[in-house]
Every structure is written in structure tokens, then in C-alpha cells.
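Design review, sub-item: ligand-bound model
Attendees: FS, YL, KQ
YL presented the inputs for the MRU complex:
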Amino acid sequence: MNINGRHYRTIWLAADGQSVEVIDQTKLPHRFETVVLKTVDEAAHAIKTMQVRGAPLIGAAAAYGLALALRADPSDAGLAKAIAFLNEQRPTAVNLRWALEEMRKVLAPLQPAVRVAAAYTKAATLCDDDVETCRSIGVHGLALIEAVAAKKKPGQPVNILTHCNAGWIACVDWGTATSPIYHAHDKGLSVHVWVDETRPRNQGASLTAFELGRHGVPHTIIVDNAGGHMMQHGHVDLCIVGTDRVTRNGDVANKIGTYLKALAAHDNKVPFYVALPSSTIDWDMTDGFKIPIEERSATEVLQMTGRLPDGSVATVDIAAPGSPAANPAFDVTPARLVTGFITERGISAATEQGLISLFPERRRAR
Ligand code: MRU
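KQ shared the predicted structure:
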């Protein structure tokens, strides 16, 4: 998508042809900076500290991180060690494991001498595939927005609520939850997005609002607690969120606070859709309560970062010294609260049968 008239992906090969360059998301929206990753340690650090974040993008970053690791040690032991190391950086998004397993399948059978080149090629393919997958999610999701728009009075926008950032910045391009929105906007439909700020790290206020704004999509930031009120008063036509892991039965792990939005949507009969690439489905996990939930640092809750009037960026304490904080980074929305899944192969019910109808190759042998 575009930033200041220039098309960007979130990850690309740096000018030296070997290092990997990413947009540093910890600096947005106040500064647009990129960071060059030269080693597997730097790639792991970028994933852990959320310089890169969002389920599909951490998978892509891990794939390139593995290529960087193999430059130093392409042996069988080096491959296994790097995969384990990258995999442990964030526990909830299954895309990380998925991307590393895709890499392993290609690399493990090869001689060490040819692994580095093959790793770069495969990582690039995973990135290209992610772009096409997210584009397809948008094409399928567009139909949902068009259906709502058809019932509106002329000139009235379709109001869509989203949580966290499941935008192009969280993927390689397009985004998952935002892809239908970009497709609708680009087609000339009137859309307006309610952007949950998404405490504690404010991915909504800092990232989703940033990318929607740069693409010209009308949007309004709301505090996390406002969503229920907006739905009660008829201001939300549709919720679309992303996810870090969907289990076989259709349960959905996503950024903390998603569950509360799904409850409010259910109570107010607002359709609640989850947009996802199939790489986010954990076919081996039977239900969402088995998903490991990342617990992040208390300082993310106890502090906030923002821009001062002089343009400098500062971090401030927002609680009295000494108060502890808990910071579960994700929650699980039960499948029964989800209206449907928007995937690269179409839209399905949020059930095992629904998923299998789109991905019949995943049917269990009886
Ligand atoms: O902790 P984050 O910012 O990586 O969490 C991101 C989310 O929860 C997204 O909604 C999810 O990864 C989907 S991204 C297309």
C-alpha cells in the first residue's frame, strides 16, 4: 500500500541483497523509519520487540530470519537451532511456526551448501504468496461490504469496526481485516472505520489509523470501551477483525479485547467477521482454550508513549509508582460468537465443517 505516494511492502531485501529491511513499527505513527536486519539475532529481536508484528508479518520475518541464520551456519544443527530460536520469540500467532515449517520442508532435504540461496528464494515466495492471499481475502470480504452498502441510503457510509491492527502493516501488503475495506474504498464505496485504540500498545490508534489515513480511508479512533456503546446506538454495521490463531473448531485468538467486542456484537446483532489467511488455522488444535496466550511486560500497561508539542517522542508513567499490572496480550473468542471467516478461498461458517468446506484437504481420515 502507499505511504506518501510511494508503494511499500512491510519487508524487503536491503540494498546489499542479503540483509532484510522492515518498517520499524515501534516508531509509528510519529516517525517513519526502517531498520535493517543483518543477523538471526536481529530478526528475533525485531519480532520480540514488535518492530515487526501481526501474525502474517512475523511469519515472513521469521522466514527471512532463518535465511540470515543459515548464512552463519547452514548445517543440520544450525537449521534446527535457528528454527527453534525464532519460534520461541512469540507464542500465540501460529503463522510463526507455520512459516518456519514451510521453510524446513524445503531446506532440510538440501545439502548445507545450497541452503542459503534456497532459503532466500522460499522466504520471498512466502511473502509474495501472502500478498496474493491477502488480496483474495479482500475480494471475498468486499462482497460483505457491498451487501451492507446495498441496504443503505445513498451517501451513507458502511460503518466497520476493527480491533488492533490487522492491516497491511501486519502482513506483507493489503492486510487481512483491512483488505476488504481497501477493496471497497478503492471501488468507490463509502466506508468509514471505527478504529479501536487497542491498549496497551495502541496498535489501532498508532498503526491502523496511520495506514487508513495514508490510503485516504475515512476513520475515527475510539477508546476500547466505546465499541459496545457504538453498537447499541446503531453506529456499527459490521465488525471485521484479524486473528493470530484459529483452532479446528473455529475459536479465535486475537488481540486482547477482541472477545469483548464479539460479545457486544452478539448482543446487538452486529455481524462479527474474522479475516484470516489459511496459514493462521491450527488444524492440530481442537479448541481455543489450548492456545498459548502471550503475557507481555507490565510496563506496556503502566506507560504510554506519545509525541510532545516540540515534536519529540516521550514515554510517560500513567499509574502510581508501585502498582503492579498484568498484560495478557491476546484473548480467545469462542466460535459461537463469530458470524463467519473471510479467507483467501471464500467465506465460511466459524465451525470445523465451515473450514473444511473451504479446505477439504484438511478433512480427517476416518
Ligand atoms: O501483538 P500484535 O500486534 O502482533 O497482535 C496483532 C493482532 O492481534 C492482529 O489482529 C493479528 O495478528 C492479525 S494480523 C493480520
